Amino acid sequence: MASTSSSTLTISSSSTLVDGKAPKHSSTSSPQSVALPTLPLRTSKATAFCRKLARNVMAMATTGEAPPSAVATDVASVEVAELPEFVKTLQEAWDKVEDKYAVSSIAVFGGVALWGSTGVISAIDRLPLIPGLLEVVGIGYTGWFAYKNLVFKPDRDAFIRKVKETYKEIIGSSY
Hints:
By secondary structure, the chain is mainly alpha-helical. It contains 6 helices and no strands. The model is unreliable at about 5-10 (pLDDT under 50).
């Protein structure tokens, strides 16, 4: 005959020291609950900056002028942070654009198309045998293109002439 024994598991809290400190007990805690200490409130530089910015905005909204400390900070930050030449060139090109809405739309749709194409390529890359096959096709096409357009001087000259003509049609000038 098999005998069964039943045992119950009980968990009791003890007053052992943790890291040399006695555990804190609240008057509302029961033996089954554990009270965790509260985390300290952290302030960061970003929070202080946001408060200062909100103060400056309120001052500008009510008086129409920025506080003197905000003006001095803004002037100092502009003098210290010089824009790179690339950014200046980009700003000048953006100022010359007449249809900013169309250019912005093309940029957004180009980004979406790039994101979608990376998804398609990663899906194809996960298929068995397809990546290896596409790599072999790419290597073969590169070899054929180099043989046809780059190996022999007359073919190379014709290819360079065609590239320059295409460049001239797109840009409008040649270098």
